[in-house]
Amino acid sequence: MEPDLRKIYGCFRAKGSYHSGQSFGPGHIHDTYRISTAEKHCDDYILQRLNNSIFKDIPRLQENMERVTAHMRNKLSVIPGSDLKRECLTLIEDRETDRSWHIDEQGNFWRMFIFISDHRSYERVDSHHKAFEGGKAVGRFQALLSDLPGEPLYETIPDFHNIVKRLETFHRVLSDNPAGRVSSCGKEIDEITGREEEMKVIIRLGEEEKIPLRITHNDTKFNNILFDLNDRALCIIDLDTVMPGYVHYDFGDAIRTAANTADEDSTDLSTVSIDIGIFEAYAKGYLAETKGTLNETETEYLAFAPKLLTYIMATRFLTDYLDGDRYYKIRYPEHNLQRNRTQTALLASMEENYEKMKQIIKNIAK
Ligand code: ADP
Ligand code: GN1
Ligand code: MG
What we know:
The protein is α+β, with helices and mostly antiparallel strands. It has 13 helices and 9 strands. The protein has helices spanning 5-10, 58-77, 84-87, 128-145, 163-176, 186-193, 201-207, 247-258, 276-290, 296-300, 305-322, 335-352, 354-365; strands spanning 18-23, 31-37, 45-49, 102-103, 109-114, 214-216, 225-227, 233-236, 243-245. A 5-stranded antiparallel sheet has the order 1-2-3-5-4. A two-stranded antiparallel ribbon has the order 6-9. A hairpin with a 5-residue loop joins strand 7 (225-227) and strand 8. The termini are far apart. The model has no long low-confidence stretch (mean pLDDT 97). The structure holds adenosine-5'-diphosphate, 2-acetamido-2-deoxy-1-O-phosphono-alpha-D-glucopyranose and magnesium ion (MG). Residues 27-29, 219, 221, 224, 238, 240-241, 253, 264, 313 line the site of 2-acetamido-2-deoxy-1-O-phosphono-alpha-D-glucopyranose.
């Protein structure tokens, strides 16, 4: 059943009367709508029906989001010339409860943000300038949150990037074979199992306390960085997974998406490869903001991070396919399998270019 967007919009303390609402954006997780208001001087809004089978405790998720956006807003507000409504997400409260979420009559959770006006968003990156800007934005994001006061953020999805745990789940699905698809995916499964040990290195470095847990975004897919009309990075969105993590997760996921010469689910694997120029430009932007804070081991393993994040996504997409497509939104029956194949092809290209990637990081970090 289509939701009554006008009614749900009315439950939030927004300025402006409802004009129209349409599905919006490429997200894989929530149902996102753009609400246009009737008055020219009023903002538009993003209204989201939240996925509460993935996020088990929406009130705690939203409390993270409230803390993070308030802290960022405070810090940005003392920077002259900041455009707070466009450089930081603004949550709108429920009229009755004053909280940043609303529960409808069917028990669905909703939240609303001011729509960031005049933005651009990119699935792939076609210029070194955008990659550099994206890298700076993610570095700045980590720096802005490095002094978030109070207790550690709630882990909205436990062990989100913990590859050891992801592989345990993968093997469980392999032996349960709930959708009867295991026998048709032998090649794809071997690509995962053949690389298991080397991919555990970041978790091990964490356990050995050679790299610290910091506050990271954990979903720095390039389309979660919004740009202004002059292609300057404006705002990082999709804050659902902001929680303790290793910097490699943010660096790796941005490269996985920005520096892929094809789409995440491209069906033509011959077009899939890592663009080393984009990698270098992003790394320059990122390190320009973080060089002074990262320790030597963190810096050394930045080149490894894109391989890890690409491998994590290859594992997650294949796990979801074998599990009967219960997690990601799909547009056709073998979509998750295709996503897995694309990620594996990208990983192979990263492996071919790994020595170059290490050298680039070394040169920039000097
Ligand atoms: P998902 O977790 O499903 O990816 P996102 O929070 O990333 O959900 O939102 C989905 C899409 O909606 C984004 O990719 C972006 O295009 C758009 N979007 C989200 N928040 C805003 C905002 N405040 N202003 C403008 N566009 C937004
Ligand atoms: C999901 O929410 P979205 O579409 O930006 C996923 C990420 C994956 C990504 C793959 C909460 O991101 O972890 O990298 O799909 N988010 C969650 O495209 O699982
Ligand atoms: Mg998103």
